[in-house]
Design goal:
Shape: globular
CATH topology of one domain: Rossmann fold
Structural class: alpha/beta
Strand order of the largest sheet: 3-2-1-4-5-6-11
CATH architecture of one domain: 3-Layer(aba) Sandwich
Number of strands: 13
Strand content: 15-25%
Bound molecules: nicotinamide-adenine-dinucleotide, uridine-5'-diphosphate
CATH superfamily of one domain: NAD(P)-binding Rossmann-like Domain
Helix content: 25-40%
Radius of gyration: 19 Å
Order of helices and strands: EHEEEHHEHEEHEEEHEEHEHH
Distance between the termini: 39 Å
């Protein structure tokens, strides 16, 4: 099996590269390193079934030989990153998805799109099921990401319907774990970094907005299962254990035994007020559900952030 993973030098992509190597696949990791890092795949580069290709997938790519799977995970993913790179985010969601679908079609490979809970926008249905069409501001600051992913889903379905490409779409909800960037601006790296440095934890708004955090190993298990099942409509993958951001800050303070205080900052525009996946579809289709409770997952992520802060 030869599996190509775009965004393979990023947080989730690097865990996928590892998992597919473990499964015995030959892995081709394609990344332009815009938000990822070679340090995430350093330990894989000596492996004889691993290849790294530095390439921007918003431009067409050609691969010699057969391919069995194309997993398209390339995209800036944190709000801070996609606000910094709005055009690149739109291009990789639109052109990058088109190019990688073309590759999958040419190679007769399975294709998987990493979509996102952001396609639901600031949701008016809670929890979010896959048949909810979402509530997205098409011209707001987050639209470069949300609309790129919505276009990506549309072009994946079109390639499936018009060309019979064997596609999958996953809608990933907030996922965390080792290899997140300390400065990616997402809530967990921010809170961990702040608590470890003894700085105040920056809670945006009053902290009553909710998220549901999934440990990366659970996500990767779901991805693996979905690839092996014939199902072409979107599937939510995430942990339905919902928490307010204020409560999340307090959990991190307690875990670290930190005396840092909480500082309230303005809520960014269009920040979703609630988010929680309905995972009935994944449960029924894949027999999958997340197994790592937040307390365990946070503990398992702590030493990574301790090292990052020590080296920063
Ligand atoms: P990340 O930033 O760590 O990884 C993304 C990778 O894609 C990086 O290595 C980056 O350099 C690469 N990349 C970006 N544009 C590229 C391009 N044009 N060509 C080649 N490589 C490019 O982010 P992540 O959290 O690992 O997210 C991975 C995927 O999962 C993204 O598609 C994201 O939208 C999706 N996702 C993630 C989450 C989450 O909670 N982490 C939630 C929903 C969706
Ligand atoms: N957030 C926060 N403080 C921070 C970073 C984020 O309160 O330092 C909030 C943010 O406003 C949002 C939630 O935490 O409500 C999750 O933000 P993140 O950037 O991790 O991802 P999102 O789920 O919004 O894509």
């Amino acid at each position: 099996m030869r599996t190509l993973i775009t965004g393979g030098a990023g947080f989730i992509g690097s865990h996928l590269c590892e998992r597919f190597l473990e499964r015995g696949h030959e892995v081709i990791c394609v990344d332009n390193l815009i938000t990822g890092s070679l340090s995430n795949i350093e330990h894989l580069r000596g492996h004889d079934r691993f290849t790294f290709l530095r390439h921007d997938v918003s431009h067409p790519l050609e691969i010699d030989g057969p391919l069995h799977n194309v997993l398209h995970f390339a995209s800036p993913a944190s709000p801070v990153d996609y606000l910094q790179y709005p055009i690149q985010t739109l291009k990789v969601g639109a052109l990058g998805t088109h190019n990688t679908l073309g590759l999958a079609k040419a190679k007769n490979a399975r294709f998987m799109l990493a979509s996102t809970s952001e396609v639901y926008g600031d949701p008016e249905q809670h929890p979010q099921r896959e048949d909810y069409w979402g509530h997205v501001n098409p011209i707001g600051p987050r639209s470069c990401y949300d609309e790129a992913k919505r276009f990506a889903e549309a072009v994946v379905m079109a390639y499936h319907r018009a060309h019979g490409v064997n596609t999958r779409i996953i809608r990933i909800f907030n996922t965390y774990g080792r290899r997140m960037r300390l400065d990616d601006g997402r809530v967990l790296p921010n809170f961990m970094g702040q608590a470890l440095r003894g700085e105040p934890l920056t809670v945006y708004g009053d902290g009553s907005q909710t998220r549901s955090f999934c440990f990366v190993d659970d996500l990767v298990n779901g991805i693996e299962k979905l690839l092996d099942v014939e199902f072409h409509e979107p599937v939510n993958l995430g942990n339905p254990d919902e928490v307010t951001i204020l409560q999340f800050a307090q959990e991190i303070l307690a875990l670290l035994g930190s005396k840092s205080r909480i500082e309230f900052k303005p809520l960014p525009q269009d920040d979703p007020k609630v988010r929680k996946p309905d995972i009935t579809r994944a449960r029924q289709l894949l027999g999958w559900e997340p197994l790592v409770p937040r307390s365990d997952g946070l503990r398992r992520t702590l030493d990574y952030f301790q090292q990052k802060v020590a080296n920063s």
